[in-house]
Amino acid sequence: MRLVSTALSVMAYDYPTEKISVYVSDDGGSQVTLFACMEAVKFASHWLPFCSKNNTADRSPEAYFASNHSWSSETEQIKIMYENMKTRVETVLERGKVDEEYITEELERRILSKWTDGFTPQDHPAVIEVLLEGRKNRDIADHSMPNFIYVSREKSRTSNHNFKSGALNVMLRVSATMINAPIILNIDCDMYSNDPQTPLRALCYLLDPKHKSQLAYVQFPQMFLGINKDDIYSCEYKRPFQINLMGLDGLSGPNYIGTGCFFNRRAFFGGPSTISPPEIPQLGPHHVVDNLIQSRPTLDLAHKVAGCNYENNTRWGSEVGFMYGSLIEDFYTGFRLQCKGWKSIFCNPKRPAFLGDSPISLIDVLNQCQRWVIGGLQVGFCRFTPITFGIKSMGPFMGLAYTHYCFWPIWCIPITIYAFLPQLALLNGLSIFPKFSEPWFFLYVFLFLGAYGHDFLEFVVEGGTVQRWWNDQRMWTIRGLSCFFFAALEYSLKCFGISTYGFSVTSKMIDDEQSKRYYQGVFEFGVSSPMFVPLAMGAIINLVSFFVGLVRVLRGSNFEGLLLQMFLAGFAVVNALPIYEAMVLRSDKGRMSFKTTITSTCLALALYALASLLLRDRS
Ligand SMILES: O=c1ccn([C@@H]2O[C@H](COP(=O)(O)OP(=O)(O)O[C@H]3O[C@H](CO)[C@@H](O)[C@H](O)[C@H]3O)[C@@H](O)[C@H]2O)c(=O)[nH]1
Ligand SMILES: [Mn+2]
Predict the structure, then answer these.
(1) What angle separates helix 362-380 from helix 396-406, to the nearest 10 degrees?
(2) Is 356:225 a contact under the CB 8 Å cutoff?
(3) pTM, two decimal places
(4) Residue 548's pLDDT band (cuts 50, 70, 90)
(5) Engineering a disulfide at 291: which of 35, 227, 298, 496 sits with its beta carbon 3.0 to 4.6 angstroms away?
(6) Which atom of ligand 1 is nearest to the CA of 505?
(7) Which residues, including other chains, have CB under 8 Å from residue 412's CB and lie 6 or more apart?
(8) Which sites bind Mn(2+) (predicted)?
C-alpha cells in the first residue's frame, strides 16, 4: 500500500496532469505489485479530481485519511473506495497471487497471463504495461490523467543486474522511448510526496537561466515518518540527510541521496559542455519522440531496452546513466556527476517535500548501515577515488567531503580500542592515561568535552532534542563496534575473493509486537547475529571492569591513575544499559538471544585471559 500512496501522491501533483508520467519499477517482477498499480490507477480517477477540487495538502490517501481532514459525504465516499481498494490489495498480497475474482477486465487478464509457471523474480521476460495513457484516459471530472507505466525489467540468472542502478538505467531508457521528458523525479517506493507544490519548487532551479546549463539535480532532504519519539536507533540520520547537505550546498552542491531528487535528464549523458551520446539516438536527451506511447514501435523498443543483455558493450553504468560498482549507487552517481562539472542544489522547504519509512529493528538498521559502508569503501578504493580523482576534479573541499563518507568505517578502529583497551588495562590495575595531577590529564578532558560538546551543539541547533542526541551518540558507538567493523571485514574478504555481497533491501515488514516495542523505545535484538557479539562483549567487559576498578579504588589503590579509565567504563556502562536489560532482564521476543549472550560471554572471558597474559607483567 505504500507503493500505492507513493504513486498517487506524485500523480496528484499541482502540475499540468498531461505532462506527468509515472513509471513504477518492479525489480522483483511481482503480480501483486502490478495488481496494486492497476488498483491505484482506477482509484486515481476519483482521487485526482477530489484533491484538486478540495485543494488538499496531503495527496497520499494514506496520509490524508490519517490526518484530521474535513468531513463531507464526498470525503466519506472516497474513503470507502480507498478502504475497499486497500482490502483488495492486502488480500491479494496475503494470497501472493491474483485470483479470478479480482480480475474485472479482459485487459487485466491478458496482462496477468504473462506470469506463467516459469516466471520467477530472478528469471522472467521484461513486462512493460501502459496502465494509463494521458491522451486517452480521463478522470471522473473529465480531466486528462497522467501516463502510468509499469516496468519490470528482464531478469535472468546468468546476467548481472547491478541492483538499483541497473533498475534505474532501465527506467531512464524506457522513459526515453515513451516521452523522453527532460526532468526526472526519482523517488523510492518507501517514500511519498508530502507537498503537491514540490515540482514547482524544483523547476524554479532547474529552469533558472543562471543555473540551468550546469545543474544536474535538485536534492530534497530525506525525512522519515514513524520514527519513535527519541529515535533510539538514530535513524533520522540528521547529518548525512540534512545538515551536511546544507554545508555542501555552499560548495558545488549536495551529494545525491537516492530518493527525493529531481534530475536534469541531460546530466546522464556526459558533462555540462560535452555530450556523451547513448548507443542509439532514440535514447539521447534531446530526441523528440514522435510515436504514441502505446504504439507498436514504441513498445517494441521499450522492451528491447529493458532486456538483460541490452547493456552489453555499451557505456551504461560506466559513462552514461546511473553508475555501477557501488552498493551506494546514489553516492557514487552524484559524485561522478559532480566530478564532470555538474552542480546540484539542496532544496529544504519548511513542509517536508517527501516522507519515508525507516527500519525499526536494530538488526535492519545495522544491515542497512553495513551496506552503505561497503558501498562507500567500494567508491573509496575505485579508480575514481575521491582522495585523488575527486580532489583533482572538484577541489579539496568537495573532494574531502566525499572522502570522509568513503572512509567512514575507519571510526571502528578508535571506537573498538576505546571500548576494550582501557577497560582491560583497568581490570589488570594498569593505568594508561595521565594522572589527575598531571597537565596532560586536562588535554584528555578537553578533547572529550570538546568533541562531545561540538557534536551536541550541532545536533541541537538543527532542532534535535537532548534525548535524540544521546541516542545518536550511543548508536555511533554501536555502529562503530558492529556494522563498521563487519563491513570492513566483508569488504576485505571480497577483495581477496572469499565472498560476494548483494543489495539486501531494507526490511519494511514488522510484526505488531515488534512495532509496539519499538514505539515504547525498547531495543530489538531478537535474532542471533554476529553483529551483536562485539556489542555484548563490550557491555560485559565495561561493566566488570567498572566494578573491579571501583573495588580497587575503594581499597585505596591508585585512584588518580585509574580515574579516566573508570570514567570511560562508567560512561560505556550507562550507554550499554539497554544491552544488559536485553541480556538478563527481558523475556520478550526482542531480548538478546541466549546463543549471542553465551558466545559473547565466552569471548569476553577469552579476551580477558589474553589481555591478562599480555598486561599483567607490566603493572
Ligand atoms: O536490486 C535492487 C535493490 C533495490 N532497489 C530499490 O532501491 C530502493 C531503495 O532500497 P531500500 O531497501 O529502501 O534501501 P534504503 O537503505 O532504505 O535506501 C537508501 O540507500 C540506498 C543506497 O544503498 C539508496 O538507493 C536509497 O535511495 C536510500 O534511501 C527501493 O525502492 C528498492 O525497490 C531496486 O530497485 N533493485
Ligand atoms: Mn528505503
Answers:
(1) 130
(2) yes
(3) 0.94
(4) very high
(5) 298
(6) 12
(7) 480, 481, 484, 485, 488
(8) 164, 188
Task: For strands 21-25 and 147-152, give the pairing.
Answer: parallel
Ligand 1 pocket member 27 (CB < 6 A): yes
Question: Which residue, chain included where needed, has cell 510526496?
Answer: 193
Confidence class of residue 510 from pLDDT cuts 50, 70 and 90?
A: low
- Specify the pLDDT at position 38: 95
DSSP state of 58: -
331 lines ligand 1 (CB under 6 A): no
Q: What's the length of the chain?
A: 619
The rounded distance, in Å, linking the Cα atoms of 401 and 331 is 12
| pLDDT of the residue at 17 | 93
In the predicted structure, residue 603 carries a pLDDT above the cut 70 = yes
State the chain's mean pLDDT as an integer: 93
* 150 backbone dihedrals φ, ψ, rounded to 5°: -95, 130
Regarding the beta carbon of 46 and ligand 1, being less than 6 Å apart is answered: no
Q: Which entry of 58, 195, 231, 330 is annotated as an active-site residue? A: 330
d(CA 506, ligand 2 centre) in Å: 6
501 pocket-lining for ligand 1 (C-beta < 6 Å): no
Residue 69's pLDDT is 82
d(CA 488, CA 236): 23
- Looking at residue 410, its amino acid is I
Give the model confidence (pLDDT) of 8-54 as tens digits: 999 999 999 999 999 999 999 999 999 999 999 999 999 999 999 99
Give the bridge partners for 25, in sequence order.
Answer: 151
Contact 582, 532 (CB under 8 A): no
Using DSSP bridges, classify how beta strands 147-152 and 183-186 pair: parallel, antiparallel or unpaired. unpaired
| Best of 225, 506, 508, 509 for a ligand 1 pocket test (most atoms within 8 Å of beta carbon) | 506
Q: Which ligand is nearest to the CA of 163?
A: 1
SS3 433: coil
Q: What pLDDT score does 195 carry?
A: 96
Question: Is 27 among the catalytic positions?
Answer: yes
Instruction: Report how far residue 604's alpha carbon sits from residue 294's, in angstroms, rounded to the nearest whole number.
Output: 65
Return d(Cα 240, Cα 161) in angstroms, integer.
Answer: 27
HSE toward the beta carbon, residue 384, CA cutoff 13 A: 21
Q: Please give the pLDDT value at position 513.
A: 87
Measured distance CA(97)–CA(100) in Å, rounded: 10
Q: What is the pLDDT of residues 313-349, one digit of tens each?
A: 999 999 999 999 999 999 999 999 999 999 999 999 9
Percent of the chain with pLDDT over 70: 98
Q: Is 155 in the pocket of ligand 1 (CB under 6 A)?
A: no
pLDDT greater than 60 at residue 619: no
Query: Is the Cβ–Cβ distance between 528 and 591 less than 8 Å?
Result: no
Q: Which of 37, 220, 505 to mutate to test the pocket of ligand 1 (most atoms within 8 A of CB)?
A: 505
Ramachandran category for residue 312: left, alpha or beta (phi over 0 → left; psi -120 to 50 → alpha): beta
Nearest to 375 by CA among 323, 337, 339, 319: 323
Could you give the strand order of the β-sheet that contains 127-132, starting from the edge strand earlier in sequence?
21-25, 147-152, 127-132
- Tell me how far the alpha carbon of residue 70 lies from the centroid of ligand 2, in angstroms: 31
Number of Cβ within a 10 Å radius of residue 614: 11
